[in-house]
Sequence to fold (111 residues):
Amino acid sequence: MKRIWIGGLLITGLVIGLTLRANAEDPTKKQCVNDARQERKTCAQVCNDTFFASIDSCRGVDHDCADTARDNRESCVQTAFDALNQCIDSGPKLFSGTDHTVFFLSHQALC
Fold:
């Protein structure tokens, strides 16, 4: 009885494995999944735009002006992070380990 149960379990596992492999290799299904992911990205972007437009409307701010300000803020923050990372990379090292490096930041190392 135990042998029959184990044999049935093995056959079921084999069938499931082969089915999953066949589905994974089907280019039509793969393209369908990729299309669904792209549709989700597009939908999320539209929802975000609508959300920000609603917030701007509630605050009485021109939406185009607010979008420009948000874009400029991201650019400004990225510029500051780039400068900080450059300072950290060029600063003196406190010690080096196998997994990480810790940098010592003094007032001189912050450019």
Q: What stands out?
A: Confidence is low (pLDDT under 50) at residues 98-111.
